[in-house]
Amino acid sequence: MLEYREFCLRAELEGEVLEAWIAAGWLIPEASEGPRRFSEADLARAHLIRDLHDDLGVNDEGIAIILDLIDQVHGLRRSLRDLSAALSVLPEPMRVRLQEELRSRRRPARA
Amino acid sequence: MSADPYTVLGVKRDASQDEIRKAYRKLAKKLHPDLNPGNKDAEERFKEVSSAYDLLGDAEKRARFDHGEIDATGAETPRQNYYRDFAEAGPQSGAGRYESHAGFADFAENDDVFAELFGRRAAGTGAANIRMRGADLPFHLHVDFLDAVNGATRRLSLPDGSSLDVTIPPGIRDGQLLRLKGKGRPGLGGGPPGDALIEIEVLPHPTFRRESDDIHLDLPISVTEAVLGGRVDVPTPTGPVTMTIPKGSNSGSILRIRGKGVARKDGSRGDEYVTLSVRLPKTPDPELEKFVAGWEAGKRDNPREGGGV
């Protein structure tokens, strides 16, 4: 875990900017009581926010939307992984049946 | 990466800095790995594009490249981990608390399978995840001064009746926190357990004081030892050692015993500093009184002189 100052240093952030990001909910440091601490994941997230802002020219409103969608994508991806792991324990005939069903849905609709 | 950076960014060799920045932004928006969580190709291409931009985005570097002073690989800087690497690693990575299922709650409404997938997670606080790391369990542990200096093993009783052996590393400080991974409260929904957080309180010692890695100690010596010198036993954290007091030692003189201080992580130790304190005999001694009364030089000696007292 990273202390506040080390985090600012490694994320190349001014304390003021970090406070604003935390206030906006873009970063959620660990521990509600005592000194706030950050994980390597928080650090990577801070780099992502900087990329969006500095390199990709996204403004603050845009960053909020992008982070929200990214968080949803990761939630969805994990659910899909869980689903895929759960499906893999089904007996073979059921999996084949499932594949057929999916294939038929991808086929363009015909009158 | 040795492809021509102009080709990579798709700009002409005489493109303006502004055109280069725009071209980079356009590509980066499409290829940034965090915007393409499962796409390995995007990552590779993003690397190419960013190193091309590292070179051409900086007018000075670009000029040096154009003049052949540095090649296309000269600008490649290794990038830190991407956020997606943590998000993909699961909640243990610390990214879990950002993960959101709020947008898929509708799937959970009608279908049993999806209710299982999304429903439980979307319930509660919305963005929160039911799979949670267990809480940290705080403890307070009194450690004897010498155990803190030398290291020790202590047994903690847990609330559930079991016990936990805690290794106190040598040199631990007052107020330091020991974290025992996975010894906290159990996780929820298959989440990992929390940690035991042990706050160490080091008890004071009647004779030793600690300053950083050194031990300080006041050592009373007799008038005879002070005047004539001698060998005395001195306590140290690892047991007594014999120390030579030089002839004519005074109160306040400090002697150092190397390597008898606090154990350090690398196996070495700090030093012990012994401050001498000359003591008269406990009961007044007539013979000493008689000797000092007849000691002429003692009557002229004024230790306050020149000391500003």
Notable characteristics:
heterodimer, A: 111 residues, mainly alpha, Multidrug-efflux Transporter Regulator, Chain: A, Domain 2, 2 domains, two-stranded antiparallel sheet, 5 helices, 4% strand, elongated, B: 309 residues, alpha+beta, Helix Hairpins, HSP40/DNAj peptide-binding domain, four-stranded mixed β-sheet, three-stranded mixed β-sheet, 11 strands
Describe the structure.
The complex is a heterodimer of chains A (111) and B (309). Chain A is mainly α and 111 residues long. Chain A has five helices and two strands; from the N terminus they run E-H-H-E-H-H-H. Chain A has helices spanning 4-11, 15-23, 40-55, 60-87, 92-106; strands at residues 2-3, 37-38. A two-stranded antiparallel sheet of chain A has the order 1-2. Chain B is an alpha+beta fold and 309 residues long. In chain B, the strands form four sheets. In chain B, strands 6-7-11-10 form a four-stranded mixed sheet. In chain B, helix 2 runs antiparallel to helix 3. Chain A binds chain B through residues 28, 30, 39-45, 47-48, 51, 55-57, 66-68, 70-79, 82-83, and chain B through 24-25, 28-29, 32, 34-35, 37-38, 53, 80-88, 90, 93-95, 97-104, 113, 117-118, 121, 127.
How are the SSEs ordered, and which strands pair?
The complex is a heterodimer of chains A (111) and B (309).
Chain A: E1 2-3, H1 4-11, H2 15-23, E2 37-38, H3 40-55, H4 60-87, H5 92-106
Chain B: H1 5-9, H2 17-31, H3 40-56, H4 59-66, H5 83-89, H6 105-110, H7 112-122, E1 137-143, H8 145-150, E2 152-157, E3 163-168, E4 177-180, E5 196-202, E6 208-211, E7 214-222, H9 223-228, E8 230-234, E9 241-245, E10 254-257, E11 272-279, H10 286-293, H11 296-300
Parallel strand pairs in B: 1-5, 7-11
Antiparallel strand pairs in B: 2-3, 4-5, 6-7, 8-9, 10-11
